[in-house]
Write a structure and sequence with these properties.
Elements (H helix, E strand, L loop, with lengths): L1 H16 L8 E5 L3 E6 L2 E7 L5 E6 L5 E6 L14 H4 L5 E3 L2 E3 L5 H6 L5 H9 L3 H4 L5 E6 L1 H5 L5 H5 L5 H9 L2 E3 L12 E3 L5 E7 L2 E5 L5 E11 L2 E6 L8
Parallel strand pairs: 8-14
Antiparallel strand pairs: 1-2, 2-3, 3-4, 4-5, 6-7, 8-9, 10-11, 11-12, 12-13, 13-14
Helix pairs in contact: 1-4
């Protein structure tokens, strides 16, 4: 039953994301430096300065606010595999879940190609976050795999995707999204990342191994870093991160 539910939701997202009605409640205004995106009751404003620094502010209909500033790294930082964070932006793509994730596609479209992220894609659709994650961003997304969702107590995901639990699902999913574009080399040990949900994630790093600690003391390992999309970057994680609320 669980597989059938997610298959139906994923199919619905695939159909919706490529037809006009999916964006009926999403609007965007932009110029060379500023972008304003409205998706449902969420309004997000992004401003990018000439020096590469970007500022993002957001406010939801229920009054939740977020604010973030992202500063670019100077030069390229070696990632230990012969590549730098500067070169990753022009990467031909990264293989995830049997599909090639490429920089010319947005975060949602890339995720839809992965056989390991069907649960996440279905959840994003159920929470009405497709338009938000297809906005200008940039966003950094920590994307749990199907196996990560399977670690949750039995019945948790089926309960979360019910319409009456939409707010809770949105809270959990936006806790996996950070305003700005953070490649693996930008994530430092002890760094605090303020999420779109409003709470923070803590980075723990040993060499090239990156781990995230959530607000409840849980931890997730980055298993595939630097999946670059047109509106940000995704890092695949092996555990669902949980906010306090």
């Amino acid at each position: 039953m669980k597989k059938n539910l997610f298959s139906t939701l994923a199919l619905g997202l695939a159909f919706t994301a490529f037809t006009a009605p999916a964006f009926a409640q999403t609007s965007m205004k932009s110029d060379d430096e500023k972008t304003k995106t409205k998706d449902g009751d969420m309004v997000m404003k992004t401003k990018e300065a000439k020096d590469g620094k970007s500022k993002m502010k957001g406010k939801s209909g229920r009054g939740d606010k977020m604010k973030s500033t992202t500063k670019p790294m100077k030069g390229g930082t070696d990632m230990g595999n012969g590549m730098s964070n500067a070169s990753m932006g022009s990467s031909a793509g990264v293989m995830v879940g049997g599909a090639m994730m490429t920089p010319d596609k947005d975060i949602v479209v890339n995720a839809m190609g992965s056989s390991e992220h069907t649960t996440l894609v279905a959840a994003v659709k159920a929470a009405d976050l497709v338009g938000t994650l297809q906005g200008a961003g940039p966003f950094t997304v920590f994307a749990p795999t199907n196996a990560a969702f399977d670690k949750l107590p039995a019945g948790t995901v089926n309960t979360l995707v019910m319409p009456e639990n939409k707010a809770k699902l949105s809270t959990i999913l936006t806790y996996h999204v950070v305003p700005g574009r953070y490649l693996a080399a930008d994530l430092k040990d002890g760094q605090q990342l303020t999420t779109v949900e409003g709470e923070t994630l803590t980075v723990h790093r040993t060499g090239s191994t990156v781990m995230l600690h959530d607000a409840k003391g849980g931890k997730a390992n980055v298993t595939i870093p630097n999946v670059v999309s047109s509106n940000g970057v995704t890092h695949v994680v092996d555990t669902v991160l949980m906010p306090t609320r």
